[in-house]
Amino acid sequence: MIVAEQKPLAEIMRMLAPYENVLILGCGTCMTVCDAGGEREVTFLHDALRLAQKKSGDVTHKFTEYTIKRQCDPEFLEQLHDRISGVDAVLSLGCGIGVQAIAERFIDLPVLPGVNTSFMGMTKEAGIWDERCSACGECRLDDTAGICPITRCTKGILNGPCAGAKNGKCEANKEMDCAWILIYERLERLQQLEKMRRYYPLRNFRAIPRPRRITSNAVIEAGESDG
Amino acid sequence: MANSLFEEKLNSGEFVVTTEIGPPKGADTSEMVHHIDLLKDKVDAINVTDHQSSVMRYPSLGGCLLVKEQGGEPILQVTCRDRNRLALQADLLFAYSRGVVNVLCLTGDSIDVGDHKEAKPVFDADSIQLLNIIKTLESGTDTVGNELKGVPKFYAGASVHPEADFIEPQLIKFDKKVSAGAQFFQTQGIFDLASLRRFMQYASQFNVKILAGIIVLSSAGAARYMNRNVPGIIISQDIVDELAAVEKGKGLEKGIEIAARFIKTIKEEKLCHGVHIMAVGNEGIVPEIIEAADIIGVPS
What is the pTM of this model? Predict the structure, then answer.
């Protein structure tokens, strides 16, 4: 899933300044799971903004709140038609994709990002999320025992550890495990150390020419036969 | 035939001594030139570091040209932290065109340990891929197969960490560096000769030259600081204790003594092919260490 953190209130208020009627829009998928922008966070933020407004004496903004299942999906965005009439801006608590999907769908409506989209990761334990994938477009997890060196090694190197680790921790962050030591240990457990002995050449960054698009042939072919 | 004086010296079987110079933060190279003049006849080659510890400085390539101008033998340190494959190849071609052929290939410290923490880390290549880039250039093409006009030839080396606290993956990496064309190695700082002996037992099966890294410590405080903050450096407690036992102000003297003792033992036991002295900011004391270790400076 995509993991994000809510922006500081002061930054959100600066973005909101020009707009009177603002819809705070949550996202029911990733942002709900990472506690950054689901229904609960929408309500918390709504309360926080109201309180901040009261405290500052500037009560020009009116807020409404709503959460849809997925901001990145046009199908769910259609539900917004009724909600956005009379709204001057949407404060999206969706990830960067959600924000852009709204901007693309409602061309006259300003949309503001309420979260900083951080990474693709997983829930490690309650309240802790860890980055796991860099969407490099060339998955090599088979070679590295299911542990991604591009994401989990601070240098993203492919041919084994640098010499910077101490006590199994990364030179860039003493809290972070050295990905290459983890890879070594797991390859050893799987009796696949020969995978580490191989030479991995320079990466192909053309696998990720931005922006990327994936087209499903299955869907297109189905569409053609329908029509 | 050897590509450089440094290679020639290593092939001669004589005990080789190299050291390194950190370029200045700024455009004033006078102190660096002073250090080059002081060291060039006392050692066989001088490494010039490449934004060591990810701290932005005058470039290693510029420093190597100064070493050449002063009549010394430079070793160009190249890290992959700050340049993509185009820039790496270009710098290598430039180095060769100006007579800088000894190249130490390093992945490079993390951006996070340096003074430009918000910079974009590049790492388009790692040290092993960099060695392969050199091999490719030497074969007459760039990394995408385009033919080069003028083919360079280097004497390529790499680093190895015999005292890593998790040695097995480091040894795999060492093998891969040898396969990728590393002909000489300068080790990370050695503080425990037993680990160097163990490593040399392993490394002696390969036809490569090994220079043991000797870090000159200036105080127990400096040693503890390095243990905490310098990637990979693990200074054993007995060395820290030895430094802590001397009176204030005598730390560097002790550090020189320890370094000289290590070098002497390494040479007497013929543990490896030479030493690489890292005086980190105290370049001026290297001649003193060489004298104390009773190793003869380069004959010309």
Answer: 0.93
